[in-house]
Amino acid sequence: MLLGQRRRGARIMIALLGLVFAGLLIGGLDAVDSQRDEYWYMAQFGAGPIVIVADMLNQQLIRSLPESEQYASIGLGHINAIGTLYVALAGLMNIVAVLDVFRDRTGEQPKRRADDRTAKVGEPAQ
Question: How does 36-48 read in b/e, with b if 16+ C-beta sit within 10 Å?
Fold first, then answer.
């Protein structure tokens, strides 16, 4: 969005936030866990501060409970894994979007239709 590509930036932002919130909705707050799933957390960390806040909430609200009560409030099995995967995909997608910003575009020209090149100013393209 800062590069002037507002539409593209908005699409990426909506996709990232959608994946993170869907992952948290599906897998619960336990889908982001830096203590037990540290390799997944490395991928999720790319999604930014929202993942850090979700992990802090997880550690404060769920992991501070006794172990017998933790199992009543965490997602178990495949549902939790799917939520974890969604948030990890959001992090990896954000890393790819950031790397794309730094790509060299000096030789690229915008593509134009043949009609646009031949039409004169003020004349409609045929």
Answer: ebeebbebbbbbe
Six-digit token pair at 79? Answer: 């549902």
What residue type is assigned to position 59 of the chain? Q
Q: Are 90 and 62 within 8 A, CB to CB?
A: no
Q: Please list, in sequence order, all residues whose beta carbon lies within 8 angstroms of the beta carbon of residue 33, skipping any fewer than 6 positions away.
A: 40, 41, 55, 58, 63
Please tell me the pTM assigned to this model: 0.74
Task: Please report the DSSP string for 56-77 in residue order.
Answer: HHIIIIITTS-HHHHHHHS--T
Residue 94: burial class (beta carbons within 10 Å; 0-12, 13-18, 19+): buried
pLDDT in tens, 55-98: 999 888 877 777 777 666 666 678 888 999 999 999 999 999 99
Q: Which amino acid is at 9?
A: G
